[in-house]
Amino acid sequence: MSRKIVARVSAGVLFLLLALVAYTQSGNQPPKLTLNKVKDDLFEIEGDGGNVAVYVTSEGVILIDDKFDRDHEGIVAAVKQATPQPIKYVISTHYHEDHSGGNVKMYGSGVDIISTANSRKNILEKRQSNATPGVMPARIVFTDETAVFLGGKEVRAHYYGRGHTNGDAIIYFPALKVLHTGDLMAGTSPLVDYSGGGSVVEWTKTLDAAMQLDFDTVIPGHGAVTNKAGLQAYRDNIVKLRDRVTQQIRSGKNQTELAKFMETEYQWAPNSLQQQWSVPGFMTELK
């Protein structure tokens, strides 16, 4: 075998080895999830999807959301860092796959899942355009308010109205004065899922109702844990965004021009969900 052939074969083998290393370090590895303590027996799991709240009781664990299907094993492992108690309930903040995609495996583990009636309906009607097949809805639903009592502790779920979707639940831990907002607070600016019944007009009214609860700590749907002032600032920024967008539309801007405005002023990338879901809805709701 000539030196040239040997060199080519060696280079090919090296390429395959490097490709294998890259694969095992990326797509073949489970998503990284991090467990953080929020307060007393309340924790949150960050990474790969919405923030999961973990409330530990003497009779089991109550979760808020369960991320994607692929995160199930990681969530179970993170919970075990906090307690040996099993997961008993999941309360879903809303129907999107990054918050409810793990439902199917939770059912397989004997966990009860609770959501608003609208969230269940949205999953059944496949309202999320980019969801993978097989997302399972909750079997237990509520319309205005419900509560779970376990191990002497209470978690309340409230539905105050439309916002990110038409089925967003605000989760309240009364003994700890903590809220989990789901994606009613997430990122730096709102994503309005109009296909799922969302509303940028009603969003602030929904948050105003939630602000009446007695709390000092906020777990957002995505992002770092914050406080009541942080949630108020997020609410106020929605008003500012809504007013600016309304002005653009009523001055005669078409959808393409509005999309460019949102890209320039709010850094909404051209192919982002905000551009796909929110901008067309703005043109109708804010005209």
What would you note in describing this structure?
With 287 residues, the chain is an alpha/beta fold. It has 2 domains: 30 residues; 207 residues, Metallo-beta-lactamase, Chain A (4-Layer Sandwich), CATH 3.60.15. The protein has 9 helices and 13 strands. The strands form 2 sheets. Strands 1-2-3-4-5-6-7 form a 7-stranded mixed sheet. The protein has a 6-stranded mixed sheet with strand order 8-9-10-11-12-13, with helices on one face. A hairpin with a 2-residue loop joins strand 1 and strand 2. Helix 6 runs antiparallel to helix 7. The longest helix has 23 residues. The chain starts with a helix and ends with a helix.
* Fraction of residues in helix: 25-40%
The CATH architecture of the largest domain can be given as 4-Layer Sandwich
Please summarize the sheet with the most strands: 7 strands, mixed
Low-pLDDT residue intervals, each spanning 5 or more residues: 1-26
Give the ordered list of helices and strands: HEEEEHEHHEHEEEEEHEEHHH
- In total, the number of strands is 13
**Can you count the helices?**
9
CATH class of the largest domain equals Alpha Beta
Radius of gyration: 22 Å
Distance between the first and last residues' Cα: 74 Å
Shape: globular
- How many domains, in number, for the residues? 2
**CATH topology (fold) name of the largest domain:** Metallo-beta-lactamase, Chain A
Content-based structural category: alpha/beta
Q: Which strand order does the major sheet show?
A: 1-2-3-4-5-6-7
